[in-house]
Amino acid sequence: MSNEESAALLEQELAKFRDESYADLVRRMEAGSLHIDVTGATGRNYQVQIDFFWDDRPGGNLRVAGAVDDSGWRALVPLCRDFIKAPDGSFVGE
Q: How confident is the model at residue 76 (pLDDT cuts 50, 70, 90)?
């Protein structure tokens, strides 16, 4: 698995959710995890999982976490990225 390619694909998938409102992300959290199959520029297939959950307490900051692997050994230790959105729509720690 190419770390550069997989990281870029994961960032691309996470970027789709950065512009969503806090309320929309809460609705996504209630719906559960997303599983996305993507193909990199090299033709390699990857699985991306996006999870939405409270970072500290219900109604507080919401964390959007993503993980990517290629179904190989990396599935045991996927590459992960995340961001945290506050109820006011700002990003925490950025």
A: confident
SS (H, E, C) the chain: CCHHHHHHHHHHHHHHHHCCCHHHHHHHHHHCCEEEEEECCCCCEEEEEEEEEECCCCCCCEEEEEEEECCCHHHHCCEEEEEEECCCCCECCC
Quick one: pLDDT at residue 1? 61
Q: Which of 54, 52, 56 is nearest to 64 (CA)?
A: 52
Which tokens in the block code for residue 41?
Answer: 């520029």
Domain boundaries, given as residue ranges, for the chain: 3-85
Q: Tell me if 85 sits within 8 A of 62, measured CB to CB.
A: yes
Mean pLDDT, residues 79-85 taken together:
96
- Cα→Cα distances 4→37, 44, 49, 81, Å: 17, 12, 17, 13
Given the structure tokens 């996927």, which residue do they identify?
Answer: 78
